[in-house]
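hi! just following up on the protien thing from before. the input was this:
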Amino acid sequence: MSIAAWSGPLLEWEGELSSLKARLGPVFGRRELRETGGAFLDGLLSGVARKTGWMVSEHAGFERPWRIQGLLGRNRWDADALRDEVRAYVIEALGCEDGVLVVDETGFLKKGRHSVGVARQYTVTAGRIENSQVGVFLAYAGRFGQALIDRRLYLPKDWASDEARRAKTGVPAEVTFATKPALAREMVARALDAGVPCAWVLADAVYGSDFGLRSMLEERRQAYVLAVRSNHHLRFIEPAGLIETNSAEVAEGLDDDAWSAHAAGEGSKGLRLYLWARFALPWDCPSGWQRWLLIRRSRKDPEKQAYYLVFCPVATSLAELAGAAGLRWTIEECFQRAKDDLGLDHCEARSWHGWHRHMSLVMAAAAFLAKLTADMRRMACRKRNKSSPVTATAVSPP
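and the predicted 3d structure came back as:
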């Protein structure tokens, strides 16, 4: 097998992209709109620095940006139908029984107040309160890669109750105020209802602290590892009576031999090793299931700890829980690639449907790249390692 067979050049970029465009074509309907959608994907995947209407149009050879702007604005097509097709494409490329669903949010810094959902609000993108939009996203991660499969714009309360701004930006009448965890519940349920293979659902403390999300997953018998804060309140009954404590206090009470080192995935400098421990939560559980408080501790700084609530099948190992918790970074990689390379944060549309159309098209472009990457990794896995001729000579007897 040649180097080209597993390093990438033999992957059929044009053929696969044409196949994806044909698959997505029915979503757009008319031939001209299908062509414009394909041109938009080409622009997202190009080296154009800013994926704006003008620059994508210029890349496509259009004299004016009206076609691209119409794709995000006045033309009629269903962004949710595109989302569903992207999800199916991702699962075909990456789906596996031990795959995971990951929820997180990301911010889009904005000037002015006219874009839908923009407000002075905290965004992890800036690490502070800024004028921004915030989107809640769902990613799927499998053995060979990860990709975004759902999105929803968070609509702050003042936007949800402002009929004038709703009308101007086309917010549908059925859209009401919903918290970010409520949006997460809706997206995770939609993915599970669609048959997405999922071993674990993962999220940070914004979502892990939501009883509604945990309850929904437990009713479905869906395992999860959801982060919570150090002061997350815990209450249970022991022979001594009612115990009220929190995550940090439980961790402090664990014996030294409760901790063991496990990898939480691979980072840029190799395996990310931490100390891990778990505490069985004495709450009622369905038969065959158990609940834990999982704790991760830095090996260099014991004061740096992270906490997770876990719902999992009986006999799940600590190493398995550590591995699952460590996969939450995969959605951060999705955000970074989509923003750095595909213009996730270059949306100029001010309307509700324009935002969701832009995000869905970027998700389609990212899914395409994820599939190519997965195909390359599969080819590499089929290539058996052979001893280096130089090494073989060096270790041979004189």
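The two ends are 31 Å apart (CA to CA).
Residues 390-398 have pLDDT under 50 and may be disordered.
cheers
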